[in-house]
C-alpha cells in the first residue's frame, strides 16, 4: 500500500491518510504533495521514458483485446493502471452531477465465471468516466471485511421500470440480514492468490470517499437503485446533504430510453414506495420509461431528463463491444481490476476525440 500511495499520489505513503494536497514543486519541476494529517511531504513517482513506452504498449494491446498474464506483464499493467488512474483525475474541470452504477463482471477464480462487483461513476454532463472500483483488494484484510458469497445469482432485469419491480427491490433490501450484506453470487480467488475479495459495502464506501476528495462540489448524485449506494453517498457528502447543497436520486430506466433523445418526457405517475416511503416518479417518452426518486427531501431542482444513468450504461456498452470482452472472463480479479482502469482511460480518450470532432 505504501508503494502504491507514494507512486500515484492518491494518499500519504507515511500514515496512509487519503487526504493530501498539492504542495508546490521540486527543483526538478515535479509536483510535491503534503498529507493534511501528518504534514509530511512526498513526491509521486515520475514515469520514465521507458516506463511510458511500456504503458503505451499495454494500452495498445488492450485496445485489441490482448494481454499476457505472466508476472512481468502484470507489473507493467500495474504501472499502466497507476498512470491511467492519475490521468482520470488529473483535471481542473468542475464536476456537478455524478452518475453511479454497479455491474457484475466474470473473472477466473477458484472456478470459472466467478463474479467481480464493479462500481462505475461518470460525469453525467460530459460522459467522462471519473472512477472505476471493484471489490478486489491487492492486500489481505480481516475476515470480517472479506466477502463470503453464496449461491445468489444476478437476475437480468427485463423491465425494471415498473412500480412492482421497485417494490420487489425494496423488499429484497429488507430481507437482508443487514442492509450492508450484499450477496451477488460466488467470488472466490484461486488458492494462494494475492489479495482478497472484500464485501461490496467496503468497496462502495471506499469508492465514494475517493470521489468526495476529488470532486467535493457535486450538486447531484444519480444512483442505481441500491440502498448501499445511497448510504455511502450520504456518508461521504453528509455536510452538503444536510445543508441542501447536494441532492441524491435513485434512477431506474429502460436502456431503450437512451436512443430516443428527440422526444420529450412527460410525467405519468407518482408513488410512495419502500421502508423510507421515497416518492418515486415515472417519466415516459414513447414506449420507454424511467423511474426516479429524490432521496434528500429538498425541492426538485433538476429536470427529469437530466436524471439518468445513461453515461454509465454507455461505458458498459462500450466495454461489452470491445475486443477485450471476448477474453475478459479468463483473467484473474486483480488483472481485471487493473484492466478496467486502463480501459476507462482509453474510453475517455475516445470520447474526448469524438466530442472534439463535433
Structure report:
- There is one protein chain.
- The chain has nine helices and 13 strands.
- It has 358 residues and is of the alpha+beta class.
- The chain has a domain of 242 residues.
- The strands form three sheets. Strands 6-5-4-9-10-13-12-11 form an eight-stranded mixed β-sheet, sandwiched between helices. A three-stranded antiparallel β-sheet has the order 1-2-3, with no helix packed on it.
- Helix 2 crosses helix 3.
- It starts with a helix and ends with a helix.
- The model has no long low-confidence stretch (mean pLDDT 86).
In DSSP terms (H or I, runs of 4 or more residues), the helix count works out at 9
Strand sequence of the main sheet, in spatial order? 6-5-4-9-10-13-12-11
Helix fraction, binned, reads 25-40%
Number of strands: 13
Termini Cα gap: 42 Å
What integer is the average pLDDT? Answer: 86
Give the biggest sheet.
Answer: 8 strands, mixed
Shape: globular
Structural class given helices, strands, pairing? alpha+beta
CA-atom Rg in angstroms: 21 Å
Give the SSE string.
HEEEHHEEEEHEHEHHEEEEHH
Which stretches of 5+ consecutive residues score pLDDT under 50?
none
Question: DSSP strand (E) fraction?
Answer: 15-25%
Amino acid at each position: 500500500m505504501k508503494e502504491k500511495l507514494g507512486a500515484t499520489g492518491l494518499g500519504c505513503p507515511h500514515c496512509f491518510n487519503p487526504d493530501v494536497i498539492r504542495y508546490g514543486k521540486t527543483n526538478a519541476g515535479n509536483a510535491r504533495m503534503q498529507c493534511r494529517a501528518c504534514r509530511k511531504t512526498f513526491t509521486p513517482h515520475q514515469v520514465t521514458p521507458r516506463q511510458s513506452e511500456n504503458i503505451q504498449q499495454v494500452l495498445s494491446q488492450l485496445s485489441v483485446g490482448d494481454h499476457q498474464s505472466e508476472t512481468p506483464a502484470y507489473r507493467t499493467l500495474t504501472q499502466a493502471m497507476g498512470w491511467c488512474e492519475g490521468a482520470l483525475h488529473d483535471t481542473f474541470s468542475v464536476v456537478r452531477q455524478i452518475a453511479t452504477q454497479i455491474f457484475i463482471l466474470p473473472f477466473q477464480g477458484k472456478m470459472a465465471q466467478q463474479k467481480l462487483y464493479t462500481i462505475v461513476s461518470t460525469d453525467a454532463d460530459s460522459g467522462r468516466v471519473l472512477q472505476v472500483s471493484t471489490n478486489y483488494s491487492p492486500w489481505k484484510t480481516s475476515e470480517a471485511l472479506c466477502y463470503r458469497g453464496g449461491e445468489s445469482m444476478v437476475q437480468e432485469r427485463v423491465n425494471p421500470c415498473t412500480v412492482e419491480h421497485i417494490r420487489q427491490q425494496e423488499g429484497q433490501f429488507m430481507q437482508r440480514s443487514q442492509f450492508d450484506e450484499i450477496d451477488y453470487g460466488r467470488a472466490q480467488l484461486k488458492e494462494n492468490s494475492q489479495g482478497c475479495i472484500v464485501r461490496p459495502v467496503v468497496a462502495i464506501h471506499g469508492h465514494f470517499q475517493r470521489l468526495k476528495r476529488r470532486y467535493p462540489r457535486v450538486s447531484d448524485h444519480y444512483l442505481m437503485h441500491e440502498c448501499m449506494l445511497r448510504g455511502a453517498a450520504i456518508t461521504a457528502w453528509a455536510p452538503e446533504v444536510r445543508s441542501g447543497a447536494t441532492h441524491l436520486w435513485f434512477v431506474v430506466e429502460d436502456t431503450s430510453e437512451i436512443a430516443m433523445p428527440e422526444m420529450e418526457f412527460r410525467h405519468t405517475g407518482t408513488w410512495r414506495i419502500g421502508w423510507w416511503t421515497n416518492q418515486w416518479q415515472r417519466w415516459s417518452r414513447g414506449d420507454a420509461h424511467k423511474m426516479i426518486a429524490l432521496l434528500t427531501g429538498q425541492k426538485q431542482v433538476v429536470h427529469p431528463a437530466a436524471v439518468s444513468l445513461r453515461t454509465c450504461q454507455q461505458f458498459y456498452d462500450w466495454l461489452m463491444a470491445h475486443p477485450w470482452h471476448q477474453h475478459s472472463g479468463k483473467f484473474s480479479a486483480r488483472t481485471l481490476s487493473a484492466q478496467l482502469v486502463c480501459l476507462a482511460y482509453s474510453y475517455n480518450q475516445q470520447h474526448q476525440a469524438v466530442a472534439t470532432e463535433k
